[in-house]
Description:
The protein has helices at residues 2-22, 30-56, 61-82, 87-107. By secondary structure, it is mainly alpha-helical.
Amino acid sequence: MVPLLLATAAAGAGVHVVGLYLEHHSELSTAVTVLAIAFAVALFLVALDGVRGGLEGFYRPARAVVLAMALGLLTLSVVLAAIGAGILVSLVPVVVAVAVPVLAHEFTDGGE
């Protein structure tokens, strides 16, 4: 449970880095700024999946696919920033990556 709390704090720090970038108080590039929040969200998603697997007592392969999709979207966000897309465009995959596990849970047998 502690890794989940630490990952939540890291995601909050990533949001703060993005806020500083948007207010022009940061000297980081767009790619590094997006990487800061994407990495923190990736830690959160992996920790959440680990906690969920520990609570359920078993691991379903479908959850690995959902986690891989979410991590792929986070990678896409960093790639978009690296090739020159704006920060808001680059953050859209981050938001969708957070929604993917929720939607997968609700629309499969986990959402009963």
